[in-house]
Design brief:
Layout: H1 7-14, H2 24-36, E1 44-48, E2 53-54, E3 57-58, E4 62-72, E5 77-80, E6 95-99, H3 101-104, E7 108-109, E8 131-132, H4 135-140, E9 147-156, E10 163-170, E11 182-188, H5 195-214, E12 223-229, H6 233-241, E13 249-255, E14 264-267, H7 275-287, E15 291-294, H8 304-307, E16 316-320, H9 339-358, E17 361-364, H10 385-389, H11 391-395, H12 404-410, H13 415-427, E18 431-434
Parallel strand pairs: 7-8, 11-12, 11-13, 13-16, 14-15
Antiparallel strand pairs: 1-10, 2-3, 4-5, 4-9, 6-9, 10-12, 14-16, 17-18
Length: about 450
C-alpha cells in the first residue's frame, strides 16, 4: 500500500487515465484505488466476463484504442486521441474513411457554452463513431475539403480481460456483526480525463475509509462496504453477482462531484424520509454550512438508481456539489478541485456513516419507571438540563419501535448524547439491542 497523502494527490494519479467502462486505464485506476485504501479493508478487484447478462443488462467488452485522429487532405492533424483522450467519442467504432464536410459534421461534437473546451461524449450502447473538439477550432475548419477519419479501436470479449470493479470492507471494533448489516458507499471510477466527475467522489470515499479504519466504529455497529465501479453497469453487475448481500444492506451513499466550490446537495432516497435521509439532514444542519436538497434521481441521477432501484430498494442518498459549469468538458480537470471541498464532503459523509452504522432499536427489559439513581442513570439537571428533562421521555420510547436516532430526533437531543445514555441501560441489562430493520425488498 502506498503512503496515503492528500485526497487531491490521489485524484491527480487517477485523472489522466483513459477510464471507460472496460479499459486498461480503468484497470489502472482501480489499482491506484487499492494502493491507497486502508490495508485491512481487504480491497479486492472482481472481474466479470464480457457478454454475460446481469439482470436485464449485458457486461460490455473491453475497449482498446490503438490510435484515433482526424486530419485534412494535406495531413494536418486536427484532433488526436494521443494528445487528449476526450477527442475521441468513447466506444467509437473502428473506421478509416475519407469524408466530405457535410458527411463529417454529424460525427463532430463541441461544447458551445464553453467554446474553448473539448467536450466528453460517449456511445456506450448506441454505437457509432465521432470526435470531440472545441467550438473555436470547429469554427475555423474549412468546409470545402475532404477529411480523413481514422479510429483504430478494438472491442475485446476475452473473459480473461473482463469487466472489473473494486471493493473494500471496513468492520467495527471486534469485527463483523452479522445482525447489524452493512452500509454501502459507492463512487464511479469511469470518465476519461474528468476530475470532479467522478474521481473526486472516489478519493472522498477513500478518505472516509481511512477515517473509519483509523477510528473504528463501536462494537456491534454495521460494517461499511466500499464499491468502486463504472457508472450504472458497475453496480448492476456487482449486485447481480452478490444478490445475497442485498437483504443485509441497510442503506447506501453515492458520492460524486465533491471537489468544486459549491455547496453540498443532498439527493434523497427513493423512500424520501428514510433514516438515511433524516440522518443526512441532521448532520448537514449540525455542520452549519449552507446545503441544498432534491428528490430521488432529480438532482443528478447515477448508481443510486440501481442501489435504490426495483428489486433492490436499499435506501440510498447521494451527496455532490452539483452543478458546476465545467461538467463533461476538458475544463473538468484538477485545477477546479480543492482539498478543503473534498475534506468537507468527507466530514459530512463520515458523520452520516457513524450515526447510521451505530444506530439500533433499544427494547426495554424493565417494567415501570427505572430507579435511575439505583443504577447510576440519573442525570443532574445542573450538569445537563436538557437531558435531565428528557429522562422519562427516553425511557418511554424504549419499546422496540424507535431507533436511537428516532428518539434523539423526536426529543431534539444530540444523537451521541442519547446513545451514550441508552448504552448505560444496556450495560445494566435493562435493554436489549435490536438491529435496524431492512426496509427494502427483493422482487
Amino acid at each position: 500500500m502506498k503512503k496515503y497523502t492528500t485526497a487531491k494527490e490521489v485524484l491527480e494519479e487517477i485523472f489522466p487515465l483513459h477510464r471507460t467502462l472496460v479499459s486498461d486505464g480503468l484497470d489502472q485506476a482501480l489499482g491506484i484505488v487499492g494502493s491507497h485504501m486502508p490495508e485491512h479493508a481487504g480491497y479486492a478487484i472482481e472481474s466479470y466476463p464480457s457478454g454475460e447478462y446481469v439482470w436485464t443488462w449485458k457486461v460490455p467488452e473491453r475497449y482498446v484504442v490503438h490510435e484515433a485522429y482526424l486530419e485534412l487532405e494535406d495531413g494536418t492533424r486536427i484532433v488526436d486521441f494521443a494528445v487528449n483522450p476526450l477527442h475521441l467519442v468513447s466506444y467509437s467504432l473502428p473506421t478509416d474513411c475519407w469524408v466530405s464536410w457535410n458527411e463529417l459534421t454529424p460525427h463532430l461534437f463541441t461544447a458551445p457554452k464553453r467554446p474553448w473546451a473539448v467536450p466528453w461524449m460517449f456511445k456506450y450502447y448506441e454505437r457509432s463513431w465521432g470526435f470531440c473538439l472545441s467550438q473555436e477550432l470547429y469554427d475555423r475548419l474549412p468546409n470545402h475539403q475532404r477529411y480523413h477519419a481514422v479510429i483504430n479501436s478494438e472491442f475485446i470479449a476475452d473473459p480473461e480481460q473482463g469487466f472489473k470493479i473494486g471493493t473494500g470492507l471496513i468492520h467495527p471494533v471486534g469485527g463483523v456483526c452479522a445482525e447489524a448489516g452493512e452500509l454501502l458507499v459507492c463512487a464511479h471510477v469511469c470518465h476519461p480525463a474528468q476530475a470532479n466527475d467522478d474521481a473526486a467522489g472516489v478519493v472522498t470515499a477513500i478518505e472516509v475509509a481511512h477515517r473509519l479504519a483509523d477510528k473504528p466504529l463501536s462494537p456491534g455497529s454495521m460494517s461499511v462496504r466500499f464499491l468502486f465501479c463504472p457508472e450504472t453497469i458497475g453496480s448492476i453487475a456487482y449486485l447481480a453477482h452478490h444478490e445475497d448481500l442485498i437483504p443485509n444492506l441497510k442503506g447506501g451513499i453515492f458520492i460524486e462531484m465533491t471537489g468544486n466550490r459549491n455547496t453540498l446537495v443532498l439527493q434523497h432516497s427513493r423512500q424520501d424520509n428514510d433514516l438515511m435521509d433524516r440522518i443526512a439532514q441532521a448532520v448537514l444542519k449540525k455542520h452549519g454550512n449552507e446545503f441544498r436538497q432534491g428528490e430521488f434521481a432529480q438532482v443528478i441521477a447515477n448508481d443510486e438508481r440501481v442501489i435504490n432501484g426495483p428489486g433492490v430498494n436499499v435506501p440510498c442518498i447521494s451527496l455532490s456539489r452539483w452543478p458546476y459549469d465545467e461538467y463533461h468538458t476538458s475544463d473538468d480537470n484538477p485545477a477546479i478541485i480543492h482539498e478543503d471541498m473534498l475534506q468537507g464532503a468527507a466530514d459530512v459523509i463520515e458523520d452520516i456513516i457513524r450515526i447510521a452504522a451505530s444506530n439500533y432499536v433499544p427494547r426495554r427489559k424493565f417494567r415501570g419507571p427505572v430507579f435511575l439513581s439505583g443504577y447510576g442513570l440519573w442525570v443532574d439537571w445542573r450538569v445537563n438540563w436538557n437531558l435531565n428533562r428528557a429522562l422519562e421521555k427516553i425511557m418511554m420510547r424504549m419499546e422496540g419501535k424507535q431507533t436511537l436516532f428516532d428518539i434523539a430526533e423526536e426529543l431534539n437531543l444530540d444523537y451521541w448524547e442519547v446513545r451514550e445514555y441508552i448504552e448505560k441501560f444496556y450495560a445494566n441489562n435493562l435493554v436489549e439491542k435490536v438491529p435496524v430493520p431492512f426496509v427494502g425488498e427483493v422482487a
